Structure formats: structure tokens, C-alpha cells
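Quick one, T. Sequence first:
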Amino acid sequence: MYDFDNKTFRVVQNDGPSAEVTTATIFQFWQVGNLVHADYEGGGVRYGKLVGLLEGDSMHHAYTQINQQGQFQSGRGVDQLRLTEDGSGSGSCLMEEV
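C-alpha cells:
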């Protein structure tokens, strides 16, 4: 199982069109069992909250955030989790532990 408890991650790459989450966005994660949650800010995000469940190599999550213009945004997603030795990875949004 992955361990996100009390870990900080920064975004290395996000290829999403008009993404609010950028390389300036920092996530602070906590975990209890398979439940994870994170606060995040930076880049286009003034403040965000993510809540998710770990299931094998996937994280099913929902998020809500306020961007720098004061607009609320929310959504859901499923992320494939991978650990790499050299810090690289695959997918459209890459994060590394700080």
C-alpha cells in the first residue's frame, strides 16, 4: 500500500488544457488506512481540498478548489499510482515528494 501520510508533493508536470494546477502547486497529504486527503495551493489555485480512497494502484478522488480569480471548481478523478526510482513517471499530471 502507498503511504501518503504527512507527505508534501509538488507538481512536476500537468498537461491538462488550461490547468489551474501547475508546477507551482504544492499538495500536503494525510492518510488513515486507505483514506487520503490533501490541502493544496499555488499556481492557479488559491486553495484546494482533495479527498480520496486508495484501491490497489489507483486513487479515486474528488476535489474542490478556489482559483486565483475567486471561482469555485470541483470534480472527480481516478489516478493510476506509480513509484519510480528516478523520479519520472507516466500520465498527464506528475508529482514528486518534496
